[in-house]
Write a structure and sequence with these properties.
37% of the residues lie in helices and 22% in strands. By secondary structure, the protein is α/β, with parallel strands linked by helices. The longest helix has 17 residues.
Length: 265
């Protein structure tokens, strides 16, 4: 596999939010199987794409890479391929390889239901902050205006019910009417797992939606997980400002930050 094709695969991996470790031969000394710049991707199931030399050496690198998916800390490590080092593992190539292992962890993700003015502004802001963005709507023309890694044209409940939710993902409901948000919220509460769940709307809308969900038998404990009305109270007025309000709250919740001002006065 060429470096170009491997890097294309790395972009695809990031697109689908699959964790892996990028391994690069950083330096060599003496007789070694690969030269500096050789790369490989190592996945959580021990699968490797590309090669940095094979054999016992590569298996040790794979083991170290799997540990890094837990620690999330890059590692620069040398592996002796000769008998003279106390760390030798029996290789007799005669050289030494220094490898850079870089965990490629999924970016935080925001899934936005609604491609109207607020959804469009939020998608642009979130992508500008480096988040993985998905936008859901049944209107193709509005989806085309959003900046997203994934667009889903269809009903939100279908997407929500079939998505494997993770704690670093936020689901934000900003659709065009309360009935659509209500059904999306009901489905989200039946399929928990997201690190953040929020719904836009006035106090009247929020009260009505939550009351109707109570009538369906959804528990108070489940309803208490919903952030609604969504966002921080910063006096936001237009869609761009509302997007700032929403993303600030989402970011604070997923990162377990207090959201308090940094000023010491």
């Amino acid at each position: 596999m060429t470096d170009e094709s491997l890097l294309r695969e790395l972009l695809a991996v990031r697109q689908r939010r699959e964790p892996c470790v990028l391994v690069t031969v950083a330096a060599v000394r003496g007789s070694v199987p690969r030269e500096p710049g050789a790369k490989a991707l190592i996945f959580a199931d021990s699968r490797i794409l590309g090669t940095i030399g094979g054999g016992k050496f590569e298996s040790l690198v794979i083991a170290d890479a799997l540990a890094l998916l837990e620690s999330k800390v890059p590692l620069l490590k040398s592996y002796p391929l000769h008998e003279k080092s106390p760390d030798s593992f029996g290789a007799i190539c005669g050289g030494e390889v220094t490898v850079m292992l870089e965990p490629q962890l999924p970016r935080e993700a925001i899934i936005i239901f609604g491609a109207g003015h607020c959804g469009e502004a939020l998608s642009k802001l979130a992508q500008g902050c480096g988040w993985h963005v998905t936008v859901i709507d049944d209107r193709a023309d509005l989806l085309a205006r959003c900046e997203a890694h994934v667009v889903y044209q269809g009903a939100a409940p279908d997407f929500i019910a079939n998505h494997a939710w993770q704690s670093d993902e936020a689901l934000v409901l900003v659709s065009r009417n309360y009935m659509l948000d209500r059904e999306a919220l009901a489905t989200a509460l039946a399929h928990p797992g997201a690190g953040y769940l929020g719904m836009i709307g006035s106090q009247r809308k929020v009260t009505r939606v939550l009351e109707e969900l109570r009538e369906r038998g959804i528990s108070e404990e489940a309803l208490a997980t919903v952030h609604a009305p969504i966002g921080l109270n910063i006096g936001a007025d237009n869609p761009a400002e509302i997007a700032v309000s929403i993303l600030a709250e989402v970011m604070g919740k997923l990162r377990k930050s207090t959201g308090k001002a940094l000023s010491v006065s």
